[in-house]
Amino acid sequence: MTSSVVHRNMEKVARAGCVWRRLAAGDGVRVCAASPLTPATGGGGDPLGHIPPHSRMKSNYSSVPQQKPDWNRAVSDAEKIVGYPTSYLTLRSLLSDEMSNIAVHMRKLVGSSHPLLKTAKRLIYNGRNNMQTRGLIVLLISKAAGHLNPEELDQDQPAGVSLSQRSLAEITEMIHTAHLIHKGVVNLSPTVFDGTTLQDMEFGNKIAILSGDYLLANACTGLAALRNTKVVELISTAISDFMEAEFIGDRDNQGNPIPNETITMQDWNEKNFLAAGSLMAKSCQATLLLAGHSEAMQKKGFEFGKEIALAWQVYSDLQPFTDLYRHPPGTAIDLTSAPVILHLLHDNSLLDYVTAAGNSMENCDFKKIHQLIMSGNAVEEAKQLCQSHAQAALNVVQDTFEPSDACTAFGEHHKCSQDLLAQTFLF
Amino acid sequence: MASSIRGRAVRLLDNFINQTLVLSTRNISRSLSENSIRGDYQGCQSSVLLTSETRGRARSSYRRLSSAGRALRQVQEPGRQASPLSPAHRVSLVDTDLRHMFDDIKKELESQFELQEIAKYYFDGQGKAVRPLITVLMSRAINTHLHDEDRLLDSQRDVAMAAEMIHTASLVHDDVLDVSDTRRGKASVNSIHGQRKAVITGDFILSVTYAMISRRCCPDAIIAMGEIPKNLIHGEFLQMGSKENENERFAHYLKKTFLKTASLIAYTCKTAAILSGADDSLQEVAFQYGRNVGIAFQLVDDLLDFVSSSSTMGKPAAADLKLGLATAPVLFAVGQFPELNPMIMRRFQEPGDVQKAFELVHKSDGLEQTQFLARQHCQEAIKVISTLKPSEEQKALITITDKVLNRIK
Description:
heterodimer; A: mainly alpha; two-stranded antiparallel sheet; about 65% helix; globular; B: Farnesyl Diphosphate Synthase; two-stranded antiparallel ribbon; 21 helices; EC 2.5.1.91 (chain B); all-trans-decaprenyl-diphosphate synthase activity (chain B)
């Protein structure tokens, strides 16, 4: 089934959100030199960190149980600080005629295997944990930097985050979600799907396109309402970057990326900056711009957003090798993910398996590929890469939001959110 | 270069075959300022030379129209002759503005990947480019009205380009939604590159458009432009649902028509006015003109779906019926042939429905009534635009309503 490959890809994308928890749990600990805790070792990682809270009890893999990260608490602390429940970020746009219309149609999809179903499920069940972290980061950095035009804060004075900045956080989430949904559109060909499946897929595509377009259209209107042309430009180009990333490198017939002999980490960087870094970087930059900060400060925001998104991405790339509970060997792997490329740099015998799969990566012997990569150093190298990006993000926070900085004038809340930004890496 | 100018001029002239070409002094002076006297002049000359050939082609197309189409054309005849401005003149009014538009759009869509080829695919100059044409004319008409200066602002030109780009982005998504394999007489993006890339390309074109207009437009202009995607998608949702009640059904259809087609023209006209510094009531004039012309445009489109052959439209005939859509001609025909009602409700899904509905519409006066309604909207458009200070562009905006009513593709 081609669709199952697509599913797995979709899942992978969604799990990107887990890195936050992971950063909080394992890698982050190592980033902080002062931490006395034992770093995660081996391929096991910290499965506790990336299983939704309600299913945590089921987990019996635990190579590093020393520390139990409380992501939910971190989020609710963060929400208190920014004064806004992030789980409502996209909810407002979901409570509309159009969306209830979609819900009605979505029902017809139940039972089919269209990727949209999984995306929708995640939006509803795991919203808080997986999907809303981008908006939360935008709010946190807004809070940490402070607003230079207090008169714009108006009734939001106590929270220290302006209405525009909240709106921007929502827009960031909407764009990201729309992109996830549109990426899940399935290429249809009568040769791959039989009659009923083809119809299901056709219908699923229709709903996916409409709901994605709906979110994007709302993002457009929301962006325009910010009344800041530079922000519109920044965020619009971030969307273009997303789309460009989809066209980088070779792809199979369902759009799954395929590596070649010459692929390097430079390629990985370029692609993932476009696919993940750009939106985060530009949203962080834009929120500082809205708060009236200097270009130098905005650049820092950009750096922070980029680094955290890349750390996030490596973490997500690592999942098939560290979280064997959710990715038993044999599960499809993104063949241009960081561990695969890092392995290819030492040993390109892996490409034989790729060539053997022909035009559809679902034919790949993922079990063999998994074994091959686990036998080398690539996973360890990828973990180091994840740390270095996380460290870079942390450095930006520490250098930029010094207590001596002008923005500390904005009081206790500032200090608090600064701590929180640091904490997300620490606990 | 000359041949593409010729191609566009010929297309624009298609409906005005009996009129003579006047090369106005104004056009010459504009050409001078463009430093391209020879090119422009030659372009216009070619149009003259081609006119007789075009005339023959257009006539044979008319002959192919159904009796309803012919009758409608006769009804339109007096209106056409009454138009005060020669069409060639109108073409020359905006030709310099639009000449490089497609090249500029392609420049905006530059990307290092395959994406750019797919994104540029429809910007081959083969489209009617009605939306940019109207935007440019509206910009110049409002600029004249307010400032006695008809120079087109760069930002207004961006908006004209944006009109075409947003339209194309929505077409790319529409073709995936409708599982359509052809567009403008060539294979659709989704049929060549697959659904996934088509959807992503549509998003790309839209985002590039907003990045482009954000560089030169003011926040108010961007707010007006920001309404368009929301309207388009809202219209798409309305199209998915249908109403039991006949009266509601027509209101539903008109609302959908505004959202899906007219809103783009209405908001780009409004944006052009905002950029010129128009106040609220003047913005409303621009908006209402665009809204009415847009609705008329779609009504004629729905009518042509019944009377035009696939080779002229670039899409198969009765395409709407096949998609299960009941457009104005059908909704009018229901009055005379109530047996259409159940077919509308089941979206023409049963075998023979499309054929039967097609015949009934032709038997009814649905096509005439659709044309009549389109005409009313055009008259409303003329009424609002007549409140502007007279200018050549204003006259062109009036004659363009005839083009909308009498187009054959």
